[in-house]
Amino acid sequence: MLLKNILNRPQNKWQPLIKQFETIVGKDGVVQRKDELLTYECDGITGYRQRPAVVVLPRTTEQVAAVVKICHEQNIPWVARGAGTGLSGGALPLEDGVLIVTARMKQILKIDLENQQVVVQPGVINNWVTQAVSGAGFYYAPDPSSQIICSIGGNIAENSGGVHCLKYGVTTNHVLGLKLVIPDGSIIDVGGVVPEMPGYDLRGVFVGSEGTLGIATEITLRILKTPESICVLLADFTTVEAAGQTVADIIAAGIIPAGMEIMDNLSINAVEDVVATGCYPRDAEAVLLVELDGLQVEVTENKRRVAQICKNNGAREVTTANDPETRLKFWKGRKAAFAAAGHMSPNYFVQDGVIPRTQLAKVLQEINQLSQKYGYPIANVFHAGDGNLHPLILYDNKVEGAWEEVEALGGEILKLCVRYGGSLSGEHGIGIDKNCYMPEMFNEIDLETMGYVRDCFNPKGLANPGKLFPTPRTCGEAANAKKQDNIEGADLF
Amino acid sequence: MLLKNILNRPQNKWQPLIKQFETIVGKDGVVQRKDELLTYECDGITGYRQRPAVVVLPRTTEQVAAVVKICHEQNIPWVARGAGTGLSGGALPLEDGVLIVTARMKQILKIDLENQQVVVQPGVINNWVTQAVSGAGFYYAPDPSSQIICSIGGNIAENSGGVHCLKYGVTTNHVLGLKLVIPDGSIIDVGGVVPEMPGYDLRGVFVGSEGTLGIATEITLRILKTPESICVLLADFTTVEAAGQTVADIIAAGIIPAGMEIMDNLSINAVEDVVATGCYPRDAEAVLLVELDGLQVEVTENKRRVAQICKNNGAREVTTANDPETRLKFWKGRKAAFAAAGHMSPNYFVQDGVIPRTQLAKVLQEINQLSQKYGYPIANVFHAGDGNLHPLILYDNKVEGAWEEVEALGGEILKLCVRYGGSLSGEHGIGIDKNCYMPEMFNEIDLETMGYVRDCFNPKGLANPGKLFPTPRTCGEAANAKKQDNIEGADLF
Questions:
Q1: pLDDT for B465-490, tens place per residue?
Q2: What distances in angstroms separate CA A475 from CA A228, A314, A376, A407, B20, one per listed residue?
């Protein structure tokens, strides 16, 4: 209703608004030319495209608050955008809405090594945090593969993961406090500099709320001491099941590696075709990478144990990277897996789902059956340690009806994950891409309760409408609305 | 207004309600005799006392939901109670309200070792979880000192801590999913069996919400592998500052002990008077206990490093407990510290506040100044690793005006914690004891936002009214309303 009213407004209504925005952020902080707006029409998932009416680039909390306040008073919907690397369309703009971009909020405001905390603005790039403190022997743990280009603000919106989240947890475990601009333009503080805070954990609610509750403008992050020693083991197996069992056995032995990743035969060959690491045996059905970190003595001992567990599960060979160069080479293949899929097939679609680690073998078998049923090859690459799957469905968009079949196949994989007690998304978020699947996981009362909480912060529904929550449209309609092509930035997972 | 209306109702209004409750939980599940209600008139903080109108003892989620639904429909306020060991009056009943006690909800519903999860009812005692899985080499990490009598439901309400929370985090870090009865009687599920869940983290909001958002009736807990090796170091220092600096240096060296505790001279002597461990030198100004766990090789290496750091900071002696018996002896003194304070002085009051670890020395100095200003000795015992202080103010309740002065002193200590960037409560919660201090830490908009979230779950304000949130009364009024005596169960911290 509200949106409809707004859509019916004359386009020139924007001119007085733009003047107001310019007063707040300066003339160079407002983008309104159609060609310049093109930059902002999609995030990392290029299948959804929409130019915003206007882009505003604030520099401070106060500027964000002033812009949001105007939107609130004039009932203008808005979307926040970080670096635009998201993979669920969470930052997709609205045709008749404002896009608030944090690209000019790139200051590291405070480094407090003694308390192991860093305070940043939301536009700060993930990797900069580690760069700022690594000289002093610290690092920021959450490491999405896009970490050299994605922003902390976006990481918070999506509660981003990464290879090291198995041992160290996802973004929410590393965010101590947040200064927020909520959708009425108020500024509030949630969390704090000590982990024990009384009252409701609103910090936790905000992390992963996908832009529907406001904008974080100052973020207090926890940093960790760089481990004394790191090594990576690479083991190859003749069945994916054996690799999966090895993962279960390593955890069952009480070892928590920094990361554990599996790639299947299709991925291995794709990677060796493209980046030729020379480390991944082409005839292996699965390769398992295990990163261990900690004290030198601890890593040495765990390396011995992990190698033994790999051998007990029939690993043909276990090689170890102890120096940074070899480690990089081992990881190179894994990091290139998605890009490599693009070389195997005209198009591919990546799914993101979670299952309980112990169900790995069964779920992979069912994914294989689905692949055969639909007639599309699926390459499997996954964060095995925490059961986060990334099946890559290979297809050709030029074939009539292919995309619809692939989307149906992707949907079946998600439902499979939920059926095995898992989750719709491990790290890419729900956004506009998966909100139609939310009822697979949550019943009406669960969603209603979440909706109430959204309304506390966002009572007019102006902050990122249409994302995260299921809209009345069905998944089929979503598929029709979506023009899927290759996902750019796909080497960034 | 609502409460006033209820208070004006005739007492016999309860009879038809009691009938309804009896239909749900059986005759033996309802307590209404005044002498029997006495058991429930206070929790672990005996300064606040109030008998409820009626106690209901459900056994299942459905029974809880049915009872709560009746309260919702008939506008009856209610309070949930676990084992009643809480230390902030969070489970204090209402004169004209229902007390829902989880004492009959003591089933461990599921043990899933493969996925390292246990599902329990809320009345299950904390320690039972570890007992149920220790044979298989697992344990439940959060360990409040009351763990042999406190319940998991209460732990969730208060987001309980414990000695091992330095390394392993507090209760919220170990709760994966919750089945909840919310105040309208609906049953909802929050969180899940995999850590990555889309949508808002309502699980996180519920943990620590002190009974104001509903009752958790099924709780999925994460269990951890028992470490291969554990040892405790005991170091004694000639200044508290040196002990504090040692704690900072251990963390700065990248070592995260399972726990780090400091006791000052007054506590040491109290403990040796009462339990005579023989381990704590009476002339030491501070004793530091450091527990290390992990692989044997890791513990051995860290033991060497910690001992060296202690010596660098002037520790007179560093002794090590490698076997369970000696470990127990080392901890015995620490665990008896509060009870021992009771032997030093007719009465004592324990405060619970948090400061950034690095401010330890400064804050202790200021506490010492406050002690002198007010003329009451203060013994200091604290979870030094996470900056959680427990100053024990010694006084005599028979002296006119003493309690008022002690409460003022306690309040000044809390304000001191907040001023140094800390928090009002480390692990005991806000309840009815500290809600008047909430504005010291949160501004009006912060509290208002929390209030909105409360209203999502608890729109009629029937679940645990008067707790957690500041009420219009001032702290002075609270002091007058409160008849402080010794805090029973004080050996349970």
A1: 999 999 865 455 444 444 444 333 33
A2: 49, 43, 20, 9, 45
